[in-house]
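User: Study the chain.
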Amino acid sequence: MYHLNKEKTQPKKAKTGWESPVGWWRVTTEGDEEGRTVDVVRDFYGHVAEIALSAECRGYKLTFRPINGRKKPNKRPAYTVDADRVITITLGMSNSTWKLNTDRFVLYVSAWLAYPDVVVTPSNYFSSVTIQIRNYFHKRVMRV
């Protein structure tokens, strides 16, 4: 007679890349306002807010998608940001936040970013938010 182990073992959940705002990100922007074309800005490693507010990341609306399986760099890059920069970001469809209404989405992104120097506000674009640095900060290097 065989006995089955009665302990329930939970299968390990696959990492989705959305567990933390720090990691490898493929950043894209719309090539035109109608969203018919997509331009890949580049792959970045770091905090989503740092990347979005950096001078290296250009576009009027940035989409972040996690890149899984890449090794962490030995030294985390530092991005110089400007206090005047205001940028619209979206987390794309793979994040499962598209069903949230605007207020809940702003709260979700604000809590997920967990960056006290960054203000998250609603955007005019669907499933997007606008982020900017609080007024009292000037050009500086941001680190978590």
User: Anything to note?
Assistant: The chain is about 10% helix and 35% strand.
